[in-house]
């Protein structure tokens, strides 16, 4: 089950409910320590040195609890009560000289530089600006450039607002306990939070809160997509029609088609313009490629339609724009609109049962809302709600860091997967195709929010897998990983 994004007061109430149910703080701390250790093991290799920076509160207790679960790492604990004293010890243990800031070797009489720091200095309860001593200590940690795993929240960051309390740890990964805190999702907090992960199973009772914003967990997709019937045939899994590609942008059509194929719909037909027909058709085998014409009847033959990837040539005829608006308004089958075609939509009220999906990045979302990308990023949840409201309560996948999936009413889901290396031209085309390929299948239209979440999660997870194995991967590699990754 996804977990809600909560504030500090809700987290405290959740903890009180847990203690009232008979669970002990010591039991939760032990399980948090196990998960911190598991995350640290993933970030390091056998024999690596790990330095645990433990404060005097429960955040420090959580960090200290991880020590005994890392037997093949050289883990040490630095208990921090006075930051000025701790700074000198930190410099000694890491080999960071206090003046030059340069690293030295073990032969100089200093400890081996850790491969990872675990930040357990301050937890979610910090609500005051840090003094100069703490700011100097945190600055030294950041300047060391040693990767940091932050426990629950990067020290110095306000868990409710995401504001920096004078200085804050710049973590590579933040492992938050129980559920994400609201401040961790704030745009201003992203440089400090790094990759956000959730230690959801730590012995707390089920979360008593429902906030309308939930964090997707990989386990949400256990048994999904459902097993196919043994006697099924290609007619059982739908027919996707894709309208994509124009002069100078034919590759987007190919990428969308390949993304769609990885969802394994029964059939895929791509309609494109005559001037790019040959370069597109020559790169596809199982996908049928036809010429797009204004009078074409997609409503009768398809189970879902995707329109938009690669339709960016400046000389496109107006009839395709009118076709897109008519499709959005009138088609009874699901319609996914992506990329340049988003600019052709007009606000419209739709029948409640119509499935409509749009997949804007922040710049495209800004154009839909007649605002700026900065304003969209400042309140991404509200942007999803407002776009959906304007365009008929459609489903919105607002792409970017922590992609949001939702609409004007109901739950909005935050996607946890993906990394900055997805910031390559064509990655959105692959995602649009994969979404459409899934929604072409009648069985997956019945649970649309899960289908959309799964598509976005797989897309990000594929990028994570590629980054873990090939630092120089390109978008053309992405479709090959889609749909092949488990929890």
Tally of helical runs:
15
| Classification by helices and strands | alpha/beta
CATH fold name of the largest domain, please? UDP-N-acetylmuramoyl-L-alanine:D-glutamate ligase
Largest sheet: 11 strands, mixed
Beta strand %: 5-15%
CATH superfamily of the largest domain: Ribokinase
Distance between the termini: 13 Å
Give the second-level CATH assignment, the architecture of the largest domain: 3-Layer(aba) Sandwich
- Supply the CATH class of the largest domain: Alpha Beta
- Runs in which pLDDT lies below 50 for 5 or more consecutive residues are 99-110
What's the domain count? 2
Estimate percent helicity: 25-40%
Mean pLDDT: 93
Strand order of the largest sheet: 1-8-17-16-15-14-13-12-9-10-11
Question: How many β-strands, per DSSP?
Answer: 17
Q: Please give the radius of gyration in angstroms.
A: 25 Å
Shape, per Cα inertia axes: elongated
